Amino acid sequence: DQQVKQNSPSLSVQEGRISILNCDYTNSMFDYFLWYKKYPAEGPTFLISISSIKDKNEDGRFTVFLNKSAKHLSLHIVPSQPGDSAVYFCAAWDRGSTLGRLYFGRGTQLTVWP
Amino acid sequence: DGGITQSPKYLFRKEGQNVTLSCEQNLNHDAMYWYRQDPGQGLRLIYYSQIVNDFQKGDIAEGYSVSREKKESFPLTVTSAQKNPTAFYLCASSRGVEQFFGPGTRLTVL
User: Fold this and answer.
1) Which residue of A46, A101, A104 is in closest CB contact with B48?
2) A42-79 pLDDT, tens per residue?
3) What is the pLDDT of residue B1?
4) A21 at the B interface (CB within 8 A)?
5) What backbone phi and psi angles, to 5 degrees, belong to B47?
6) Which residues of B touch A9 (CB under 8 A)?
């Protein structure tokens, strides 16, 4: 059963506009969240993260928002650029667990067109 | 340069043969992971190891085996028992929460 869900498999945005990628989770013990970006035939690369003690984290054009009560987080990319076209994975971690693993969503394919 | 290497980039095998995928890291990370990516399925965890000589099954361990004899190395064997072995395989390592991924190996079973 998926504990991290990305319900939109794809998103298409015009260059310069905002891209909003969404992620929901079911496990209330998750307390750290990460976003990864992946190009075809390459490994994912870390993009940005947020701890559950915060509701927002910003890094340049990328901002992640966390709504703990709704068990929802979102990644905002402003302005979107063609080079942002990739698959974005949301991941969650339970720091109190001894399992020591991330739980990934299925990813959202972002396409930024000129 | 520190990083994770996976070799080869592309691998072809005949059905019924076991095949071992290589993963090496020089980041001095304790934990290592193997994932499988299929279209529309995201990243699914096969096996992971938090320390040398210890490893745990992930969500889809059936048909796979691993070993962790050295901190730097975490090879994955895809056995003939794996029903759908053709996929893109990713290895990762971590010291804390953030995982660093290798470039992946595309395995095609003919």
Assistant:
1) A101
2) 999 999 999 999 999 999 999 999 999 999 999 999 99
3) 62
4) no
5) -145, 155
6) 40
What is the rounded distance in angstroms from the CA atom of residue B78 to the CA atom of residue B60?
Answer: 12
Question: Three-state secondary structure along chain B?
Answer: CCCEEEECCEEEECCCCCEEEEEEECCCCCEEEEEEEECCCEEEEEEEEEECCEEEECCCCCCEEECCCECCECCEEECCCCCCCCEEEEEEEECCCCCEECCCEEEEEC
The three-state secondary structure class of A78 is coil
User: What average pLDDT does this structure show over A33-37?
Assistant: 98
- The alpha-carbon gap from B17 to the nearest alpha carbon of chain A, in Å, equals 24
HSE-up of residue A17 (Cα within 13 Å, Cβ side): 12
Classify A13 as helix, strand or coil: strand
**Is A53 part of the contact surface with chain B (CB cutoff 8 Å)?**
no
Nearest CA in chain A to B90: A43
Q: Hey, of B6, B97, B98, B105, which one would you mutate to test binding to chain A, going by the most A CBs within 10 A of its CB? A: B97
Identify all chain B residues contacting A33, using CB atoms and an 8 Å cutoff: none
- Residue A84 φ then ψ, to 5°: -80, -10
Can you list the residues of chain B whose pLDDT is less than 70?
A: 1-2
Mean pLDDT, range A28-42, rounded to an integer: 94
If DSSP codes are grouped into helix, strand and coil, which group holds residue A87? Answer: strand
